[in-house]
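Deliverable D5.2: sample structural annotation.
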Amino acid sequence: MDDDYIKKLHDTFEKIKAKINPTGVIEELQSLEARTYEQDFWNNHEEAANVMKRINDIKKEQEDCEMMELLLIDHEYKEASKLINQYEIRLFLSGKYDKNNVIFSIHAGQGGTEAMDWSNMLYRMYIRYFEKKGFKYEDIDRVAGEEAGIKSVTLNVYGPFAYGFLKAEAGVHRLVRQSPFNADLLRQTSFALVEVLPFIEDKEITLKEEDLDWQFFRSGGAGGQNVNKVSTAVRLIHKPTGLTVTCQQERSQLQNRETALKLLRAKLWEMEEVKREQNLATYKKDTQASWGKQIRSYVLHPYKLIKDLRTQYEETQVDKVLDGDIEEFILQYLRKN
């Protein structure tokens, strides 16, 4: 490796070390570990689990930081480069919610059955990506297409920096291909909207019971004996804003209620973000899955090319991308933003 590359490795490591903030992290670790000795620490299992996870994350960061430094001292630049490149991404994931888990939705836009099939293709692509990243996921609401594909699907996605990575995918995805639903194999353009919202804690968005309209109904589709017999599915309407969310994947009405509240908080947070950006007047228009807000174009015919319209990054191996290999698109976005 040449001197310039080695210097860049050292410079990047110093930035990473500053970002990790060893002094501040040690103080945080001591404070968190002290909490684990409190008598009532395990009374709130969810909060205790979060504390233990943060303790483990800090210790892992400290170990990795020490390893990077030792590799550089020992001139093991190839191994140091691998670890430093992994951590360099963290420099781009410094947003308030970047560490949070995610509510991830795909909605079919213009294009009828074609668009619903496209939504299903995207769903498969993202599931493959989640698996490659080691993210856990679960469907919380799904509306199947009449003939094929998905009208809409919403998932919870859990993983380190899930929102930090997946926020790059929010927007309209456009597909151009020969239609498999047309005997003449005509060229067809379809759209799907991807929404990415971080999990928002209860204390950040206060919900008043009098503002909530709860409706319960029987879930449809596959699901065994529970389907169409017990009203476990939930529709929640926020009266002041008119926002509506549904959840019907869980067998328990209580679980669906909790998920609906989580989804509503995320939607309200998104609305507040739009207000802060002074775009409230165009909020609904901008979230329609049409020609507006396109972020990526997937052309499968007459040539093969996937292009991100924000970064201009391109990939011609379309099958690889549609099989979940989208990391470089995300990294290009993070580096630019």
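Annotation notes: Residues 221-229, 279-291 have pLDDT under 50 and may be disordered. The chain has two domains: 3-92, 102-337.
The annotation will be released with the project's public dataset once the embargo ends.
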